[in-house]
Amino acid sequence: MKSANLTGEPVLWEDALRAVKDLNATEKGGKLWRLPNINELESLTDMGRHDPAIPGGHPFGPVQEVYWSSTTSIYEPDWAWAFYAFKGAIGVGRKTFARFHVWAVSQEPD
């Protein structure tokens, strides 16, 4: 999604999933949206950049500091992986405590 801020504010993990579900319920263009997995988010990283650490000239905005992924931690199922876009790093957040932003991706090409 060109808008890298679906919810307008940081939300809990379940709220991130719900926001994408709600987007699909109202989408008129025929696209299906989902929360990206951590590998997809990490693939955006350009280690030669920061604030955000994604390639220059990208069409996205406004890029926020941290995003939820759909990837649950295999070690701690109540935690999910997150992408730190300003640093170009990944980490985890507790699903019922941490509040991160939501960047939906389409399941179909443009």
Question: What does this molecule look like?
Answer:
The protein has about 110 residues and is α+β, with helices and mostly antiparallel strands. It has one domain. It contains 2 helices and 5 strands. The protein is globular, with a radius of gyration of 13 Å.
Q: Order of strands side by side in the largest beta sheet? A: 2-3-4
> Cα distance, first to last residue?
10 Å
| Strand fraction | 15-25%
Q: Helicity range of the residues?
A: 10-25%
What structural class is derived from the secondary structure elements? alpha+beta
What is the string of helix and strand elements? HEHEEEE
Provide the residue-averaged pLDDT: 87
Question: Could you name the key traits of this structure?
Answer:
110 residues; alpha+beta; three-stranded antiparallel sheet; two-stranded antiparallel sheet
Give a brief rundown of this model.
The protein has 110 residues and is an alpha+beta fold. The protein is built from 2 helices and 5 strands; from the N terminus they run H-E-H-E-E-E-E. Helices cover 17% and strands 21% of the residues.
Helices and strands in order:
Layout: H1 13-26, E1 33-34, H2 38-42, E2 66-72, E3 79-84, E4 89-94, E5 105-106
